[in-house]
Specification:
- Chain A: This is ABC transporter substrate-binding protein.
- The complex is a heterodimer of chains A (437) and B (280).
- Chain A is α/β, with parallel strands linked by helices.
- Chain A has helices spanning 6-29, 49-63, 77-89, 104-109, 123-129, 134-137, 162-167, 179-189, 211-221, 240-254, 269-274, 288-294, 327-340, 343-353, 366-374, 380-384, 397-412, 418-433; strands at residues 35-41, 67-73, 96-100, 141-142, 145-146, 149-161, 191-192, 198-204, 278-284, 299-302, 312-321, 388-389.
- In chain A, the strands form 2 sheets. In chain A, strands 1, 2, 3, 6, 7, 8, 9, 10, 11 and 12 form a 10-stranded mixed beta sheet that branches.
- In chain A, 51% of the residues are buried.
- By secondary structure, chain B is mainly α.
- In chain B, α9 runs antiparallel to α10 (183-194) and α11 (196-212) runs antiparallel to α14.
- Chain B is globular and about 70 Å long.
- Classes of the chains: A alpha/beta (437), B mainly alpha (280).
- At the A-B interface, α1, β2, α3 and α11 of A face α4, α6, α7, α10 and α12 of B.
C-alpha cells in the first residue's frame, strides 16, 4: 500500500528548485542600467535597528536613483565578518559592510577592502573625511591610508544609581572622579543583609566576552596602552601600567570588597544595575537607550574615574568599502559610505540607537542639539572622547584578544597573579603575531 | 473527607515503587525547566524575569513587541518550506543510497561506503566556503534550495538506513523476488515498510536539526523571503546591550510552537513507531 509514489516526491523537488531559480534570476533583470550594491550590517543592540537601516538606505536610494542598495542584516559582528569573507571567496563580495573597527588589519590581510581616501578626491570629500573625531579615526588608519569610516561607535562610561548614592549618604549628583573615590564610594554603597550576604555591591565591571576592552580603559587611566606600536603586529600586554590596572581591577573584589568576586557576566550587568545588585556599573554607551528606558530609579552617566589621567577605549563598527574590481560599484559604494556618515545621518543614527555620533559637526545639527538639551547624559561620551585611546587592533585580532580575555579571567578567578597572567598572554600574542612581522 | 482520604491511601500503597516515578519526574522537571522559564518570562513584563511571584501581571506585550521586530510569519513559512525540501531530498537520496549499499554488490562499494562514513566526521562548518562557491556557481545564492542542498546527501541518514535494511530477513527479500518484484518494488514494498521506525526517527532528528540550524542559512541568504526563523531570532541576541529575556522567550516560543504542537499531536504515532522498532 504505497501512500505516495516516488516520482511525486521528485516532482515536488524539481518544482521547488525551479521556482527558486526563477525567483533569483528575475530580480536583476528588472533594472539593468542601475548599479546594484549589497550592504552587510550586524545588529549589536536591541530595538528595531533593521528598520532604521532600511530607512537610511531608502533615503539614500531616493537621493541616488541610479543606485540600488540591498541592505542585509548579517547577525553579530563575528557572523557578519564570516558572511562577508565567505561570500567574497564565493565570488559574491558585498560592496559595503559594517565590521568591527578593530578588524581593520584582518580585512587588509584578506585583501578585501579599499582605502577610502583613494575616493575622496575633491575638496568637499576631503573635508568630509577630515571631519571625524580623531579618537575614532585611531582605528581607521594605517600605512598612511584610511580603511574604515566610523559608523556605530561607542566608548565605556560609568552609570550610577542616584537613589543608592542618597541612601549611602553620598552626593547623588556627583560620580566618583578617581580610583580612590571609586573605592571609597564603593565601600559606602556595598550593603549586606543580616546574614552577612551582600545584597548590593558598590561597583560592577563585567569581565566575560569583552574583558580586554574594559581593561584598556583602566590601563589608559594608569598611563599604559595594550596596542603596541600601532602597526598591528605588536602588543604590550605586560607593560607595568597594564599590570597595575589589572591589579586594581582584581583588588576591587579581593582587597576592597566593593565588587562581586569572580567572573561577571557582560550581558546581565545592566539587569543587575536595574535590580540594585550593583550601584555603579561600567558598560558601553550603546546601553544608554536601554538604561534610559528600563532603570526604575534616577541614574547618572559619567566619564570613567581617573588614576593618573582619564582614559577610555573606543569600540564598535566602521564602514568598509570592499574591493570588487567593478569601478562603478566601488564608486557607488563610496557614495553610500559618505551618505551614511554625513553629519545629518550620523546625528540621526546616534539619536535613534544611542551610539556616539562620529563627527563634531553632527553634534551641531538642530536635531542633535535638541536631543542633548532634553537628555544631557548623551553628551558625556562625546566629551570623554578627548581622553579616548585606540582600541586593541592587530592581525588575527580575534585570537590575540582572546589570549587577553583568558588572562583576565585567570586573574579575576584567582588562578594567577596579574603579572604572571599578563606575561603569559604577551608570550602567546607574540607567537600569534610573529608571522606578520 | 473521603475525597482527601482516597488519594492518601493510594499514595501510601504506591510509595515503594514510586522511586522510579520520582526519578522520572525529576528528570522530566529538569528537562522542562527551560521551557517553563520561557513560558514565565514570555507572559510577564520584563521586571519579573527573575522575580517569581504569583501576583505578577500577565501580558501579551512581549509577543506583540517580538512580532514587531521581525516578520516571523514569513520566516516560519520559509522554515517550513526548507524543512520539507530537506526532508524530502534526504529521504530519497538516503533510501536509494542505503539500499544500494545494503543489498547490491558492485565494484568500489566498500570504498564508496567509507567515503560516506568520512562525511560523518567532517563538520559542515569546515566546508562552508567551498559550499558557498558551489552554490554561487549554480546561481542559487539567496534561495531556499541553497540552504538545503549541502545537506541532501546525508552520510548519517545513509548509514542509519543501511543498518536498518541489513536487518531485514533475507527470506522476506526472496519471497518478494519470487513474486516478481524488481529492485525498486522490493525497496518500496518490503524494505521501507519494515524500516518505518528508523525513517521516522531519522526524520525527527533531521527536522529538529535543520529547524535550529543558523550559521549556514545566515551566510547564504540575504532576503526576508528566504531566511529561516533562526535568523529572525538572532535580532534579539544584542550583545552590546543586556539581553531582553522576555523578548527572547516570547520569540523562541513562537518559533518553537509548531514543533511542540506537532510533537504533541503525533506523540502517540512517534512512540508507537519506536516501540515497533524495539519489538522487531
Amino acid at each position: 500500500m504505497p501512500p505516495i509514489r516516488l516520482p511525486a516526491a521528485a516532482r515536488v523537488l524539481s518544482a521547488l528548485l525551479a521556482a527558486s531559480l526563477l525567483a533569483s534570476t528575475a530580480l536583476p533583470a528588472r533594472a539593468a542600467e542601475k548599479v546594484h550594491l549589497s550592504f552587510f550590517y550586524p545588529v549589536a543592540i536591541g530595538g528595531p535597528v533593521t528598520r532604521i537601516v532600511d530607512d537610511l538606505v531608502a533615503d539614500f536610494e531616493t537621493a541616488n536613483p541610479d543606485v540600488d542598495v540591498k541592505a542585509v542584516y548579517a547577525g553579530t559582528y563575528q557572523e557578519t565578518i564570516g558572511k562577508a569573507l565567505t561570500a567574497r571567496k564565493g565570488g559574491q563580495s558585498p560592496d559595503v559592510a559594517v565590521l568591527l573597527s578593530a578588524d581593520m588589519f584582518t580585512m587588509i590581510d584578506q585583501d578585501a577592502v579599499l582605502p577610502v581616501d583613494g575616493f575622496a578626491k575633491d575638496e568637499a570629500a576631503k573635508a568630509w573625511l577630515g571631519g571625524f573625531f580623531p579618537a575614532f579615526m585611531r582605528n581607521s588608519r594605517t600605512a598612511d591610508h584610511v580603511w574604515g569610516i566610523p559608523f556605530q561607535r561607542s566608548t565605556t562610561v560609568l552609570y550610577w544609581n542616584k537613589d543608592a548614592f542618597k541612601e549611602a549618604g553620598l552626593d547623588p549628583e556627583k560620580a566618583p572622579q578617581s580610583w580612590d573615590e571609586l573605592v571609597a564610594d564603593g565601600k559606602k554603597l556595598t550593603k549586606a543583609d543580616a546574614a552577612g550576604q551582600t545584597t548590593q555591591w558598590g561597583v560592577q565591571i563585567p569581565s566575560n566576552l569583552t574583558a580586554y576592552w574594559l581593561l584598556q580603559g583602566l590601563a589608559a587611566q594608569a598611563g599604559a596602552l595594550l596596542t603596541g606600536d600601532g602597526s598591528g603586529t605588536t602588543v604590550t600586554f605586560d607593560a607595568p601600567g597594564v599590570v597595575s590596572a589589572m591589579q586594581f581591577w582584581v583588588d576591587l573584589a579581593q582587597k576592597h570588597h566593593v565588587m562581586k568576586p569572580g567572573s561577571i557576566d557582560w550581558a546581565t550587568t545592566p539587569k543587575d544595575f536595574f535590580e540594585r545588585k550593583a550601584a555603579i556599573m561600567y558598560t558601553t554607551t550603546g546601553n544608554l537607550t536601554n538604561v534610559r528606558k528600563n532603570a526604575p530609579f534616577p541614574f547618572g552617566v559619567a566619564m570613567l574615574p581617573a588614576d593618573k589621567q582619564r582614559g577610555t577605549p573606543t569600540g564598535g563598527g566602521n564602514l568598509y568599502v570592499f574591493k570588487t574590481g567593478d569601478a562603478a560599484r566601488e564608486a557607488a559604494a563610496f557614495k553610500l559610505v559618505r551618505f551614511l556618515s554625513s553629519p545629518e545621518r550620523a546625528a540621526e543614527w546616534g539619536i535613534k540607537t544611542g551610539y556616539v555620533a562620529t563627527r563634531p559637526d553632527a553634534w551641531e545639527t538642530p536635531a542633535m542639539k535638541s536631543y542633548v538639551q532634553e537628555f544631557p547624559p548623551a553628551a558625556v561620551a562625546r566629551d570623554q572622547l578627548q581622553y579616548a585611546v585606540a582600541e586593541l587592533s592587530t592581525y588575527d585580532n580575534q585570537r590575540v584578544a582572546r589570549t587577553m580575555d583568558d588572562a583576565i579571567q585567570a586573574v579575576l578567578t584567582g588562578a594567577k597573579t596579574p603579572a604572571a597572567a599578563l606575561q603569559g598572554a604577551q608570550a602567546e600574542a607574540d607567537r600569534l603575531l610573529k608571522p606578520y612581522r | 473527607m473521603r475525597a482527601a482520604a482516597l488519594p492518601a491511601a493510594r499514595r501510601a500503597a504506591g510509595l515503594v515503587p514510586s522511586l522510579e516515578a520520582l526519578g522520572a519526574w525529576l528528570l522530566g522537571l529538569v528537562w522542562a525547566l527551560p521551557l517553563l522559564y520561557s513560558l514565565w518570562t514570555a507572559f510577564h513584563p520584563a521586571a519579573y524575569e527573575t522575580h517569581f511571584t504569583l501576583g505578577a501581571p500577565v501580558t501579551l506585550a512581549n509577543f506583540a513587541a517580538a512580532r514587531q521586530a521581525a516578520p516571523f510569519a514569513r520566516y516560519l513559512f520559509n522554515t517550513a518550506l526548507l524543512i520539507s525540501f530537506i526532508l524530502a531530498g534526504q529521504m530519497v537520496v538516503s533510501t536509494l543510497a542505503a539500499f544500494a549499499f545494503a543489498r547490491f554488490t558492485f565494484r568500489g562499494r566498500t570504498l564508496a561506503f567509507y567515503a560516506v562514513l568520512l562525511q560523518l566526521m567532517i563538520l559542515p562548518e569546515a566546508l562552508m566556503v567551498e559550499n558557498y562557491r558551489t552554490v554561487a556557481a549554480l546561481g542559487l545564492v539567496d534561495t531556499i534550495p541553497a540552504i538545503g542542498l549541502p545537506y541532501l546527501a546525508s552520510g548519517f541518514g545513509i548509514f542509519l538506513l543501511r543498518q536498518a535494511f541489513l536487518t531485514v530477513p533475507r527470506e522476506l527479500d526472496d519471497a518478494a523476488r519470487v513474486e516478481g518484484a524488481g529492485p525498486l518494488g522490493l525497496l518500496w514494498r518490503v524494505y521501507l515498510p519494515v524500516s518505518r521506525a528508523t525513517l521516522v526517527a531519522y526524520g525527527l532528528v533531521s527536522v529538529s536539526y535543520h529547524w535550529n540550524n543558523l550559521l549556514w542559512p545566515l551566510i547564504v541568504t540575504n532576503s526576508v523571503g528566504t531566511r529561516p526563523i533562526t535568523v529572525g531570532l538572532l535580532i534579539f541576541a544584542s550583545p552590546d546591550q543586556g539581553v531582553s529575556w522576555a523578548l527572547v522567550a516570547a520569540s523562541s516560543l513562537m518559533s518553537a510552537a509548531p514543533l511542540l504542537v506537532g510533537f504533541l499531536l503525533f506523540q502517540r504515532a512517534f512512540v508507537q513507531s519506536f516501540m515497533r522498532a524495539g519489538i522487531k
